[in-house]
Amino acid sequence: MYEKAKFLPAGDKALIVEFGDSISPEINKKIRNMYIAIEKSQLEGIIEMVPTYRSLLVSYNPLKIKYNDLCQALREFEDNLTDTDSEPAKVVEIPTIYGGEYGPDIEFVAEHNNISIDEVIEIHSSRNYLIYMLGFTPGFPYLGGMSEKIETPRLKTPRTKIPAGTVGIAGKQTGIYPIDSPGGWQLIGRTPVKLYDPFADPPVLLNSGDYLRFVPIDETEYKSILKQIEENKYEVKITSLDKE
Amino acid sequence: MSSIKIIKPGLFTTIQDSGRMGFQRYGMPVAGAMDNFSFRIANILVGNDQYEAVLETTFMGPTIEIGFDGFIAITGANMSPKLNGKDIKMWRSIQVNKGDQLTLSGSSEGLRSYIAFGGGLAVPEIMDSKSTYVRGSLGGFKGRKLQEGDEIPIDTSKSKAEPGKYISPGYIPRYSKTNVVRVVLGPQDDHFPSEAIDTFLNSEYNITAEADGMGYRLEGPKLTHIKGPDIISDGIVFGSVQVPGHGSPIVMMADRQTTGGYTKIATVIWADLPTMAQMGPGDSIRFQSVSIEEAQEILEQYEQTIDDIKYRVENSNIIQEETKVYNVTINRL
Predict the structure, then answer these.
(1) What is the CATH number of domain B178-293?
(2) Each residue of B13-44: pLDDT tens digit?
(3) How far apart are CA B160 and CA B47, in angstroms?
(4) Touching check for A62 and chain B: CB below 8 Å?
(5) Interface contact A140, partner B, CB < 8 A
(6) Which domains are assigned to chain A?
(7) Do A11 and B184 touch (CB under 8 A)?
């Protein structure tokens, strides 16, 4: 992490507040705190913010606030950032059916790592993953913190269509495809939960800075949740992150 | 409700407004009109809110059957618009009647035309916007480019359009195949050796055939990096100039993704993006660096020009050709 954030112009209507040049939970926490501080300040001229791994893109209206004034205001926020988050990070539970037709590559992931399929499931579902950022496609979460015991390289030839909700592994990363898309990840399971629904408010289930946890379910539960979602009766389980 | 019917869709015609702002943190691209100037002026000419949705058509325009009595305005690229076979003028309000046929053909100058309808296009807003995001099959009309037979409702009851509204010729941009486009260096200009920055600012770059709503790949002298082309992904804006490993700059446009992992040498200033949007494959660009302070002054002038146009349109009812030429910096240098 830098001692002081860098302010980098991204044209005449946005700037990037860069906190470091690595991927770490500490930097992510700082970004989250900064995001909340700016949002709470209701500083005039801020249009929207995009948190990423190690920076925050701030779009603004220069007719309301000029670059230098904005930098000054942001520096003040930075200097007064506190860790006393009024909103503790949430943990979003993602019910996931592993293996079978839902996760055709789970066997390969097990073999590649010399462990059993059950162990893959156990390892994958036993920790909270920090959502560093959302990008690539609407609602796609960039997650951190997967165990190296289940690291598996991408497929040599990407699949042309992976159904929405599919959970995959690519190298050290794990993630969920929010919409049907092509991709080269090793597919290990699927969640019936919708990560992205353009007609919902908000349209995307996850937020950067929060955590998610995969909860193994069987096919009966999968179908039951799917039905509840169709009937608009399903509520995603969200808990607070235990403060260590 | 009144409507228009697409007889021929043209090459790529979509519904666009100013885009889907406020949802990029979820990974949702902004989309929206590529040429912010032409889009807003088209609306102003028919008395709409200047950010109302319009039709954006690229390279080859549509043929449309008008299903209402009211007004339209056409701005942007010149696609030789005709109403019932007769030439009509651009950059002014045009009275239309039910049953009229509007035809746009290939663009002779510029790349994208905008058609505004008095009262606006009555498609639902998704995430506060009517813009079509084609890759995400979202917004606009069924989330896609328009097709033959599509009928799009027009809310003529809301129309405040009046006949004879026009903008002075001096405000009308002239499109050229060679343009100077101004940039603010950064956010990652420090990832390039000074020779690469010099090359970038002193060379001619041609727009390749790999140019669409997401971005324009340019061809010209290659740019080298100090420590390689990759960065930890960060935010992208309309106009970001990213330079991947192949060393050729890519200018990110309206349909860009929200984040990316390539170094960005510079960002095209807002007031020059309409110029970029009207350029296409084969056209050439020279980049010129301005400071962030200069860029924001230019933006103020740009917005002032649009305010002036709006004021004049709203406060003139005299149908006459104005001949006075104003000095404006929009779209040309």
Answers:
(1) 2.40.100.10
(2) 999 999 999 999 999 999 999 999 999 999 99
(3) 5
(4) yes
(5) yes
(6) 6-79 (3.30.1360.40), 90-240 (2.40.100.10)
(7) yes
